[in-house]
Amino acid sequence: MQCIAIDWGSTSFRAYLLNNGRLLETCNTDEGALRLSREEFEATVQKNCGHWFDGTSKLLICGMAGSRNGWHEAPYVSCPATLNDLAEQLVSPEHSLPFSCEIVPGVKTITTSGVPDVMRGEELQIFGAASLGGIAEGVFCLPGTHSKWAQLRQHQIIQFSTYMTGELYTLMRKHSSLANLCNDEDPDPDLFELGLEHARANPALLNQLFTSRAMAVTGYLETRQVSSYLSATIIASEILSASAALPCGALINLVGDPALCQRYQTALAYFDYPSQLYSASEAVLAGMDPLFSETIRV
Amino acid sequence: MQCIAIDWGSTSFRAYLLNNGRLLETCNTDEGALRLSREEFEATVQKNCGHWFDGTSKLLICGMAGSRNGWHEAPYVSCPATLNDLAEQLVSPEHSLPFSCEIVPGVKTITTSGVPDVMRGEELQIFGAASLGGIAEGVFCLPGTHSKWAQLRQHQIIQFSTYMTGELYTLMRKHSSLANLCNDEDPDPDLFELGLEHARANPALLNQLFTSRAMAVTGYLETRQVSSYLSATIIASEILSASAALPCGALINLVGDPALCQRYQTALAYFDYPSQLYSASEAVLAGMDPLFSETIRV
């Protein structure tokens, strides 16, 4: 059967044409859900994927297209959440496409102190990576603009936390008083490790952000080196917070962009956490795969 | 004797005309040191203070005018630093003003792990507040774009740390994915306290930044309330980090903008630290006062 999977993020549109689970074609654009009005979603699908449609096509969408300001709201499923729970709560936007079109809900959790957290899209990456790795229980880290750390137990996402890591790094590089000190393009492994070392000695992030600047101003770092140092201190802050409740040496399942995951793998190894890498695009397809089949539906 | 004191920050110019220590006039503009080329400093003094000059005027400048990219570099004095150390290392820029004109150096410190930290301008606020309060030993907190926490012992600044608190708050409000959730103008005391409560339960700042968003997205907070909550979580992160090595209940000497200091006073009280407030402008003048007299000079 021919299927189309769309991972519709805030700032990106990623579509995959599949035939019986085999990837035939891919389409990536920057037409993210935050950039579109409600009326533009169907036309964007039509424009990017119209030539893929045939009589048997079926469309599944995950990510921010299901948010309140997206195409059609798909209310969050509460933790603990299984892939079956998501399958039961698919929603269909109004559309005139010549086949079924459904949006996968996100997942929400509430901490013991009553604070909510949410994800949209990452839940399928977690279930997909778990499927690829044959994992029923484990810790998943999904680095990115809003990094997620999730606990899987008996195939359920039982809790998760989000860290504004990638967004803070971008804000620092583009809009902060560090911006003109962050003009290096190539990662510098020695400076990355120095950042990890300083973060271990002093985990106060607000202080680290300033000392990244002070090190350049006083000549301890060359200007071109600040990005790698800064990246390490922010990633280390995420890892030190997120791993606080984990047993020493727990295996971390890393799901995301391969280059970013490698940076995290280096940082995790520095803090004595081994990790296993999964590509985000392979994981999201593995997560969607059972949703295309009727068998999982109730 | 008639004197002019200028506190020349990154984004602000604050000049004070004094006669035998009595404040006669003030001039505040946004002609901060970061906005001026080297050639514009003298003209800015001339334009804003020219009508104050008489035969006996004497000019002292502290703050970013003494940075490498300012008017004339005044190299940092190393901790432990006394007011006398600053007086010994005043520098004179080239100028054609009809009286003496000197720039006060900043102060630098190096932590035990070899990380540098720097201040310019705040050192005079610390010495000045200490003088106003008759304090030889104590902890000083100077809230702001780059908040400083300093230890004074035997009239010396023995160490200090900087937190990028105010800058992060501004970045979040103006440029982040929270920007459109931060349109409340008036501080909300209940939401400020909720932010403090959540920060105490979970001090992971990168997580707090995201949950400020998640609380609005899921309807736990109204949009207009996010600023107060966010402000509390960022300030709490600074206080929890900076106070980690302090004895319980230590008195904090707060020096800065009165409205911002009141917000810090609320947060400090929540974490059981009593505080004493000093206005930044009064403190900087009290800090400069001895530098105008010849008696302190070596």
Automatic annotation (TrEMBL), chains A, B:
Q: Which Pfam families match?
A: DGOK
List this protein's GO terms for biological process: D-galactonate catabolic process
Which residue windows are coiled coil? none
Q: Which domain of life is it from?
A: Bacteria
Q: Which Gene3D superfamilies match?
A: 2-keto-3-deoxy-galactonokinase, C-terminal domain (3.30.420.310), 2-keto-3-deoxy-galactonokinase, substrate binding domain (3.30.420.300)
Gene Ontology MF terms? 2-dehydro-3-deoxygalactonokinase activity
Q: What is this protein called?
A: 2-keto-3-deoxy-galactonokinase
What does UniProt list as this organism's lineage? Bacteria, Pseudomonadati, Pseudomonadota, Gammaproteobacteria, Alteromonadales
